[in-house]
């Protein structure tokens, strides 16, 4: 357990689709302002877990608690109101809408127009290319720019916890570098981050702590730097001996 107050606490979570169970007794936590990563091979259950943590999939058993409040049966809108925003795998932008309108979709539950405008300017400061292309259709952006837009849309919800499913998937190394630096900035501003990432080395270098999921179960967890030096992790996920 972390020493900081718990933003998110998951206990004995089970979930799946139809007759197929994907998650088995998953327990993890994210402290306030902490950056935690989840690593695991394809099909390990990482995206299913993220769907549960944003209200898109109802768990079969176990609990999800946000700031001390049980959210296990909550709707996606309830999770957003509780301060959780998700950057989904594949980005899921509205390709025929402008960059600006995609960003504003992240603030759809907010009524504070002045604060929304200020948040939009902060996103543009963080990602200047989005400011330059604010009137372009989001579908015309490069992969890295689309991921910036997806992260910016998540930030427009003013979250205290940002869920990011596959930050670097299909992106060039330079784009990943820029996105990684932006996440460091977001995290330093006080926003907790739970990151699912296929680039294990990058994820562990970025995170405070990490969980390893294999076949729907947490098989290892601990400080990120300890896992970087774990021989089993190095061999299984980094191709290093």
What does this structure look like?
There is one protein chain. The chain has 241 residues and is of the alpha/beta class. It has helices at residues 46-53, 76-81, 99-105, 113-126, 128-132, 143-155, 173-188, 200-206, 224-228, 231-237; strands spanning 6-17, 20-31, 35-39, 61-66, 69-70, 84-87, 161-165, 192-196, 209-214, 217-223. A hairpin with a 2-residue loop joins β4 and β5 (69-70).
Rg is 17 Å
Mean pLDDT over all positions: 88
Biggest sheet layout: 6 strands, mixed
Instruction: Please state the overall shape, judged from the principal axes of the Cα atoms.
Output: globular
* Main β-sheet, spatial strand arrangement: 6-7-8-3-9-10
Low-confidence stretches: none
End-to-end distance: 29 Å
Number of separate helices: 10
Assign the structural class, choosing from mainly alpha, mainly beta, alpha/beta, alpha+beta, or little secondary structure. alpha/beta
Q: In what range is the share of β-strand residues?
A: 25-35%
* Number of separate strands: 10
Helical residues, percent: 25-40%
Q: What is the string of SSEs from the N terminus onward?
A: EEEHEEHEHHHHEHEHEEHH
